[in-house]
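User: Quick one: structure for sequence A, then sequence B.

Assistant: Sequence A:
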Amino acid sequence: MQIREIRSKIKSVTNTRKITRAMEMMARTKMAKSQRRAREFRPYAERIRAIAIRIHEDKPDYMSAFLARRMPVARVGLIVVSTDRGLCGPLNNRLLLKCSEALDGWQKEGVKVEVSVIGSRGVGPLHRHGANVVARTGVLTAALHFEAFFGTITVPLSGFLNAQLDEVYIAYNHLSSALSYEPRLEKILPLDELLVNRDGAPEPLPEYLYEPDPKPVVDTLLLRYVESFIYQAVAENNACEQCARMLAMQAATDNADRMLKNLVRVYNRTRQAAITTELCDIVNGASAI
């Protein structure tokens, strides 16, 4: 390897390291913001869940369509929450692998699946797998406004309420800790399994009064609960994205440091060898004279 070629490689790796280091710092900053957003939304999600559980236990004179259980299950809706950008390690691959396994399992059972995708990175792999993608959301803003993906989630929710789908699932990445995440596939409709009080027997509370009738109150609150569950999943997935990108760019920066160290060593050895060869040529020329 020539000295000029080694210099060119050192320059190229140095420039790449600057990019990966900058992306690592940006992801670290965004990760803190996204984790804070996910934590700040949890009190609302927990409160709306508590109200939904209370309504479910109260058993008003109305059975909401969100609680309708249909057997046997013939059609399923799947909401997949992926990322908009790459360079985030195995985050999307692990989630899409879990989705592919679920799709294959449903296919073996003869269940038809309609897939709605939030984020652009999940559409291509799911299409190649043969999934029936009926709705998708493009680029999400940094603020994660609910209106940005409201149209996508409306498709499976409307399908369930109109009895066109028997169950609805959501697949997303859950932030287990500050620097770890795991893919999850959870059923969100019907709501009967989610509206189970796991905190023990609650204290007796006065009964709710539904005015003018229970139907609009129950349907609105249960819809808000489903929307909060989906938004929490999108917020968790966004926090996982920044975490995965930070770790991936940190690993890329470390690899660039090791490569630079090896290239500098090779450069010094090659340069010393070239100097030694020139000195030998000079000495041999002087001896010949």
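Sequence B:
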Amino acid sequence: MDRKEFLYLVGTSVAAITIGSCLGGCAKGSNSPSAPSVNFSLSLTDPANSALNTNGGYVYSQGVIVARTLTGTYIAVSQACTHQGVTVVYQGSTNGFYCNAHGSSFSSSGAVTGGPASGNLKSYTTQLSGSSLHISG
């Protein structure tokens, strides 16, 4: 094998590896985090959860954002944006969730209402019993 042929083979190999890596990174959902399955309760008397005693307040727990809507109902979705995994915030004024990193928005049930995210946030069931809020799903 002469030098010219060797360099050609090395160049071709590097190009193939580079192209494969680029295409693999562009796969749909490659940056989307997986939403956890959860089954836990939050005590509304615990100071760490005091934001849930106010309409429009929210807390993060176990990979979930739990919010109290302006009408006083509790909602919960996965806290990681499906675009690149950045933590979303609750916006009481729109009754939805928003990702500050790239502007994705989601409804109160976690459905995408504005991109670049293309996947919905996982929605969880909430049930209030006395001062204990149970989140599951």
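The first helix runs from residue 3 to 25. Confidence is low (pLDDT under 50) at residues 18-32.

User: Thanks, that's what I needed.
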